[in-house]
């Protein structure tokens, strides 16, 4: 379940309820028996052990990233506790391009200029469609919605190559062109469009759930008062959907930032995102462990910051996509 | 910084242009007769999404399926199911399929167990939030990054201080074939403790990669399970306790059945992710040493060997494996809805 692998799921109502339930503290049962106390103590131990195991690998690389090359290669990172000779040199050498550095700074920017527009594009287009599927009357609406959502089952791999051919060669039946050749080899535009297309069923699914549950009276009253669709969308639906838009946006941000396959296939050596570059570097500099630590952390810093600062929205997006409603 | 600003600005400008185009089209609709104007407005809202789904998913998927029954370019002749025959008869490619199924089975079962255990035992614990956040961290990291983090755990000579080797070295009496001498190449060696898996079966190193997968997925599953467990009505648990149920019985007899649908959904998500396992493999072993998966072979065969049709067949196999998973999930959801009387 890399974060955005939704299945065809259900209304989001219960997700919100569960979130509300999470706010309340679980009540300690009154009059616990000795065995219950014992089992809960074992439970505690299990949790602590798992948390420890889960944290160690990341922490190890984090600590290593501030150690000198010789230290990283000869002593374990846990030595950092009693011999803390810290340095930023790993970071400075991978970020820049001096002395054969990997110029990760450039690829960090790449990831930004890939991710930000791709998020805006996918969420924006999906919001329009969610409104149409919820509040515009037309024949075959349900049918069309199901058709779009059913595309969730298509794995990325099935669509990857033909879409890239479309961008680099256009499409034609016989000799009649039906899609212009944009000659977009290894362009960030291709990556935006790819992420937008591949993420579309999920984005629509998530937003439609939310947008269609907005109060009907409100939308209809506005329509009766003569507001056009655009006005209703802009003045009512968008402001009311901010929580859902934020959740989806953050979710998409982390997902697109963390993507490897699309970036690797569509990016090319200069326009590839940071994660693709990281994997490339890990292949070519497999023995430069000290540099790899810093490179790995540079690729994680933004998703982690997003996760910690916007945890609430992030988790809400996750639940809306996955919790049975 | 200047580079970032100019590229970002030009990107945003491109998006703004798209927005203006849509607004312009929308405004034009007022000049059409009423009925057509309304249809046009619906189209402005809907067409971008439909277009994206069509050119990005539906048509490419159909084309890949079509390419999978052709021979590799430049000939591209119809050869029926020969590509699929090659996948299921070749020794290496058969191992690839088997490895992927192992990812799904082992990855799904263990992620679910770990996540349920944390969600259950952390429930109401002091520091529950912190514990869940720490478990979740790998979920915010890219799978490729996870692969690289774990390379430091599994590293062997010439890198002297791999974590796992340090741990196994300190276990007294552990034979060197299990890392007792602290110089095992964990990601490369396929056997363990004298057991040598045949070339047709996944080696121990594959299981080490699946550990990375479990590590990366468990946090997300925990968060979802945790929310579901907290959604179980307190009255149900209390009633079970009044009837004399222990905590343990209440969990297995009340909580688990109650959140069954959530468990199925999460297992579906992990199964699909396991089927598509690529990033972790690419970032750790590159699919060498008998660890390749369907998605990894798909990449290598399509983009490195340029055998488009065989690559397409791999993608189709992936698709065929995804479908039953989704169907089972849908069915179980529907049954749960019926049971709940919804």
Short characterization:
The complex is a heterodimer of chains A (325) and B (342). Chain A has 325 residues and is mainly alpha-helical.
Structural description of this entry:
The complex is a heterodimer of chains A (325) and B (342). Chain A is mostly helical and 325 residues long. Chain A has 15 helices and two strands. In chain A, strands 1-2 form a two-stranded antiparallel ribbon. The model of chain A is unreliable at 1-32 (pLDDT under 50). The relative contact order of chain B is 0.11. Chain B has two domains: 2-67; 91-145 and 200-339, MetI-like (MetI-like fold, Orthogonal Bundle), CATH 1.10.3720. In chain B, α4 packs antiparallel against α11. Chain B has 14 helices and no strands. Chain B is mostly helical and 342 residues long.
Q: What percent of residues of chain A adopt helix (DSSP H or I)? A: over 70%
Rg of chain B, nearest Å: 26 Å
Distance between the termini of chain A: 19 Å
**Uncertain segments of chain A:** 1-32
- How many domains make up the 3D coordinates of chain A? 2
What is the fourth-level CATH superfamily of the largest domain in chain A?
Answer: MetI-like
Query: Total strand count of chain B, please?
Result: 0
Topology:
The complex is a heterodimer of chains A (325) and B (342).
Chain A: H1 13-23, H2 34-64, H3 69-74, H4 89-95, H5 104-135, H6 141-150, H7 156-169, E1 171-173, E2 176-179, H8 188-211, H9 216-224, H10 229-240, H11 242-258, H12 261-271, H13 274-284, H14 289-309, H15 311-322
Antiparallel strand pairs in A: 1-2
Chain B: H1 2-28, H2 34-67, H3 82-89, H4 91-122, H5 128-140, H6 143-154, H7 163-170, H8 204-230, H9 234-242, H10 247-258, H11 260-275, H12 279-284, H13 294-304, H14 308-339
Helix pairs in contact in B: 1-2, 3-4, 3-14, 4-8, 4-11, 5-8, 6-8, 8-11, 9-10, 11-14, 13-14
List the main descriptive attributes of the protein structure presented here.
A: about 325 residues, MetI-like fold, 2 domains, two-stranded antiparallel ribbon, disordered N terminus, B: mainly alpha, 14 helices, about 70% helix
């Amino acid at each position: 379940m890399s974060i955005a692998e939704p299945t065809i799921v259900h209304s989001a109502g219960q997700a919100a309820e569960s979130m509300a339930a999470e706010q309340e503290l679980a009540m300690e049962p009154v009059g616990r028996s000795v065995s219950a106390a014992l089992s809960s103590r074992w439970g505690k131990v299990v949790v602590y052990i798992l948390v420890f195991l889960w944290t160690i690998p990341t922490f190890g690389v984090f600590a290593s990233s501030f150690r000198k090359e010789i230290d990283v290669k000869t002593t374990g990172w846990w030595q950092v506790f009693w011999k803390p000779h810290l340095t930023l040199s790993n970071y400075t050498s991978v970020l820049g391009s001096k002395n054969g550095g990997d110029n990760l700074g450039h690829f960090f920017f790449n990831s930004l200029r890939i991710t930000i527009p791709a998020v805006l594009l996918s969420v924006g287009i999906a919001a329009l469609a969610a409104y149409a599927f919820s509040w515009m009357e037309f024949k075959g609406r349900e049918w069309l919605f199901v058709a779009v959502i059913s595309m969730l089952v298509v794995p990325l791999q099935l669509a990857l190559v033909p879409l890239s051919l479309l961008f680099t060669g256009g499409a034609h039946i016989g000799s009649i062109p039906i899609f212009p050749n944009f000659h977009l080899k290894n362009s960030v535009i291709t990556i935006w469009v790819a992420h937008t297309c591949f993420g579309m069923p999920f984005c629509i699914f998530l937003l439609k759930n939310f947008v269609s549950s907005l109060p009907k009276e409100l939308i209809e009253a506005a329509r009766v008062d003569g507001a056009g669709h655009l006005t209703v969308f802009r003045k009512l639906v968008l402001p009311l959907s901010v929580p859902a838009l934020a959740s989806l946006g953050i979710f998409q941000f982390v997902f697109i930032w963390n993507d490897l396959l699309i970036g690797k296939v569509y990016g090319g050596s200069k326009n590839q995102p940071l994660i693709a570059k990281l994997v490339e570097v890990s292949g070519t500099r497999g023995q430069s462990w000290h540099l790899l630590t810093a490179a790995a952390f540079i690729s994680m810093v933004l998703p982690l910051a997003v996760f910690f600062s916007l945890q609430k929205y992030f988790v809400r997006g996750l639940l809306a996509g996955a919790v049975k409603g | 910084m200047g580079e970032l600003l100019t590229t970002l600005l030009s990107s945003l400008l491109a998006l703004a242009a798209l927005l203006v185009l849509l607004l312009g089209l929308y405004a034009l609709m007022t000049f059409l007769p009423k009925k057509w104007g309304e249809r046009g407005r619906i189209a402005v809202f809907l067409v971008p999404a439909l277009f994206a789904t069509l050119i990005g998913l539906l048509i490419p998927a159909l084309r890949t399926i079509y390419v999978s029954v052709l021979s590799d370019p430049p000939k591209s002749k119809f050869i029926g199911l020969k590509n699929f025959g090659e996948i299921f008869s070749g020794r290496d490619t058969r191992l690839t399929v088997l490895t992927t199924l192992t990812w799904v089975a082992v990855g799904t079962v263990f992620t679910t167990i770990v996540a349920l255990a944390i969600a259950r035992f952390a429930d109401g614990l002091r520091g529950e939030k912190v514990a869940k956040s720490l478990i979740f961290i790998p979920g915010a990291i890219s799978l490729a990054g996870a692969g690289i983090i774990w390379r430091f755990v599994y590293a062997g000579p010439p890198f002297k201080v791999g974590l796992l080797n340090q741990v196994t070295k300190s276990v007294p009496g552990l034979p060197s074939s299990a890392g007792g001498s602290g110089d095992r190449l964990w990601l490369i060696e396929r056997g363990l403790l004298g057991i040598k898996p045949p070339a047709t079966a996944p080696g121990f190193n594959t299981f080490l990669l699946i550990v990375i997968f479990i590590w990366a997925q468990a946090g997300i599953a925990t968060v979802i399970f945790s929310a579901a467990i907290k959604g179980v009505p307190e009255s149900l648990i209390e009633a079970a306790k009044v009837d004399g149920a222990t905590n343990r019985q209440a969990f297995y007899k009340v909580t688990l059945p109650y959140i069954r649908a959530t468990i199925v959904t999460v297992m579906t998500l992990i199964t699909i992710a396991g089927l598509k396992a690529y990033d972790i493999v690419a970032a750790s072993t590159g699919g060498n040493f008998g660890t390749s998966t369907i998605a990894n072979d798909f990449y290598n065969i399509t983009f490195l060997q340029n055998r488009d049709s065989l690559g397409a067949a791999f993608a189709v196999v992936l698709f065929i494996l995804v479908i039953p998973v989704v169907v089972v999930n849908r069915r179980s959801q529907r049954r749960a809805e019926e049971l709940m009387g919804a």
